[in-house]
Task: structure prediction
Amino acid sequence: MTRTNALDRYLRIADRFGEVVAGVRDWDAPTPVKEWRARDVVDHLATWFPAMLGAGTSIRLAPGRRVRRNPVGAWEDLDREVRVLLTDRDLAATTHTDPNTGSKPVEQVVDQYFTTDVFMHTWDLARSSGQDGRMDPDFLAALDAGMRRSAATIRASGHYGQEQPVPEDADLQDRFIAFIGRDPRWTA
Result:
């Protein structure tokens, strides 16, 4: 994985998420994650990633706007901070250390965990708000293959729901959504 690829992937995935965020009209709408409302999707990203980053490095992201008051602004602030991380060579190369994931450069942590999470939650927010939930097929294929190779670890993490049933002829997106514990037929 090269630095440019990590940055390019993030920009592509984050830009799409930003489009979906901008299209949300009801931030209290339910989502495919039963416990969450639309605003909770943004809150999850704006909360866990800065905490994860700070727990494994000396890097602290600037506090952004509050999700409860301004979910769009909160996403924009977080996105801007992550873009700085990936474009600043020193920050991107900073070693992040975590007892569960080991030591790796921040750009790899963003690429492997944050970009992936933004990608998956784009579908959640799109479905919640009645927007187009189609996922990038190339990124999806690579992510699906990688996650299935690590299925036991993923399930043990507690971060994903129980795999949902899908018809045998389900397409890759529906199979992936079911794999991460969502019902691909879910609608608001």
Remarks:
- Residues 106-129 form the longest helix (24 residues).
- The beta strands are 95-98, 102-105.
